[in-house]
Hints:
The protein has about 400 residues and is α+β, with helices and mostly antiparallel strands. It folds into two domains: about 65-145 and about 155-270, Oxidoreductase, molybdopterin-binding domain (Sulfite Oxidase, Chain A, domain 2, Alpha-Beta Complex), CATH 3.90.420.10; about 280-400, Immunoglobulin-like (Sandwich). It is built from six helices and 24 strands. The chain has helices at about 5-25, 120-125, 150-155, 170-175, 200-205, 370-375; strands at about 60, 70, 90, 105-110, 115-120, 130-135, 160-170, 185-190, 195-200, 210-215, 215-220, 230, 245-250, 265, 270, 280-285, 295-305, 310-320, 325, 330, 340-350, 355-360, 390-395, 400.
Amino acid sequence: MSEHANRRSFLGLAASLGLWTACSSEQGDSPAAEGPSRLGAPVSAYGERSRFETAMRASRSVKNPEVSSSRTPLAGLHGIITPSALHFERHHAGVPDIDPAQHQLAVHGMVERPMLFSMEALRRLPSVSRVYFVECSGNSGGEWGAKRGGDVQSTHGLASCSEWTGVPLKTVLEEVGLQADAKWLLAEGGDACRMSRSVPIEKALDDALLAYGQNGEAIRPGQGYPLRLILPGWEGNANVKWLRRILVSDQPFMTKDETSKYTELMPDGKAWQFTWAMDAKSVITEPSGGHKLAGPGFYEIRGLAWSGRGVIEKVEVSTDGGGTWQAAELQEPRLPKAFTRFRLPWKWEGGEATLVSRCQDETGYLQPEVEELIAERGVSSIYHNNGRKAWAVTPEGVVGPMAG
């Protein structure tokens, strides 16, 4: 059945169900038609979810919680914005408790006017709000092996998308005045390990953001309160949290987390360094691992796609493991370096199926198979795995991972 026929049948079924519901309501057969019989709960000072909704939680490691991570439950979310409380976390020395009234950002080195900025001073500067994803470069790292992860949270949960508010880094650098030979800066965090990364001036003057707001409120402590660096589209580790210092130089700083870590070891023994941008990636979130289909019939395949190099231009979905592909509908607006939601109506006949997606960004780059990445880069690195993820559907409707 063609995509358009699928969509017509899907909408036709929905319309039929809608008519049945309307007729039932008019005849008083539906309990919902009776309406409430008493006053509801009073206005609240802080909104809570319905008692009928199960609270979602980010999964986390408890073995070494200060140097570990939590993962976003992508399969349970709607739209493209991740609730702040469910944004993934990755820490190297725990979450510091920082008083914003005492916090300062030092900007010095190869600048004309070294300065200290208080949080109050930063908030007085012209601000912007932008929607960007943040993804750990180790996201999907476990997918290199033959045994693939069983659900979206475990395989892709080190990625989230928020509306970030703050001051363009370019504004602050113009305030201090860059010297002519300035080429790099060091971003240093206020955690116990002083997480630090080198950033080229070109990125700093492009779309880098000194963020103090997330999804309409102050950034949560686990996301870098009161100030973090956002480098749109670049690996999460470079988006330094609890930002306290920017040191400008004419060369990179070769910190621990860009030499011994966050580099990619190749089969010939050489290492790729400064592989910042996260390439185009997609994943089907529904149905996905851990789900069970109720029975044959119509379903909507849903998922997310993103690229650190710009806008997602196309997502295709296959229900036969890549034998044939159909173009999915992309939810607008499609924003650069942000999650894009995709959808495709699907009639499941009750047999075996293999669901997989692939995306293409505005540069023309097409999301590859994991095997293609392994053939090029070997198996010594867990970073920057943007390979396709397949889900197997059994005749009983059980959805799980495909073996590698």
